[in-house]
Design goal:
Largest sheet: 2 strands, antiparallel
Number of strands: 2
Shape: globular
Order of helices and strands: HHHHHHEEHHHH
Helix content: over 70%
Strand content: under 5%
Structural class: mainly alpha
Number of domains: 1
Oligomer: single chain
Low-confidence stretches: none
């Protein structure tokens, strides 16, 4: 959520609450990574909320740098690894599960590239037009964006669970809208759509919990 500190903290509270509910409805350990997804969204939104507070103060520059790169690391290093793992672990169909596992090399490659890029070119967050922009003057090549989408969204597209496919559609549409309309705010704005998609995960786990064992 990139529009204000209040919006970011509100989103953090919403997604964290959704995450606590989904985790409480997980039926086994294999479901916990997927169930915990809204908690990670909440952590990202909380980071942005703090960034809104510290960026106007030059004496807080060190904290701003740390938070900006923490946000970037979650979005660009953790998610490409986390998404295919979480979706593969809950997939019931063996063929679909195998296809999702094949997305892991893409996630690993992107995460390694991003980790090295962040280390060499640290991000800084700046306030611009009622939004947060993350800049490191090292733009990703176009094909890398495709790899990112495949790693972070592909597992949801392939899922046999309807709610997870809806989740994938929402975050993919959000990513496309971010690229088309927000450009420099890409990572931040896309997380707004991802946070909204937490409702699909909450529905998924609530529905599964209501089915008799």
């Amino acid at each position: 959520m990139c529009f204000s500190a209040t919006a970011s903290f509100t989103a953090a509270s919403f997604t964290a609450t959704a995450g606590l509910l989904t985790v409480s409805r997980a039926s086994n350990v294999r479901e916990l990574p997927l169930a915990g997804t809204p908690l990670l969204f909440g952590a990202q939104q909380a980071i942005e909320g703090v960034l809104w507070l510290v960026l106007p103060h030059p004496d807080q520059a060190a904290w701003a740098l740390l938070l900006a790169n923490g946000f970037a690391a979650i979005a660009l290093v953790l998610w490409p690894l986390y998404a295919p793992l979480a979706t593969a672990l809950v997939e019931d169909d063996a063929k679909r599960r195998a296809l999702i596992w094949w997305l892991m090399p893409f996630g690993v490659a992107f995460a390694l590239y991003s980790g090295i890029d962040i280390a060499r070119h640290p991000y800084r967050a700046v306030l611009a037009a009622h939004s947060l922009c993350y800049i490191n003057n090292s733009p990703y090549p176009n094909f890398a964006i495709g790899v990112y989408v495949l790693a972070t969204c592909g597992g949801f597209w392939l899922s046999t669970h309807r709610a997870l496919r809806v989740f994938g559609i929402i975050v993919t549409a959000g990513l496309a809208a971010s690229i088309a309309f927000f450009l420099a705010d890409l990572v931040s704005v896309w997380c707004f759509f991802a946070a909204a998609a937490s409702l699909a995960l909450l529905f998924h786990f609530t529905q599964r919990a209501s089915v008799p064992a």
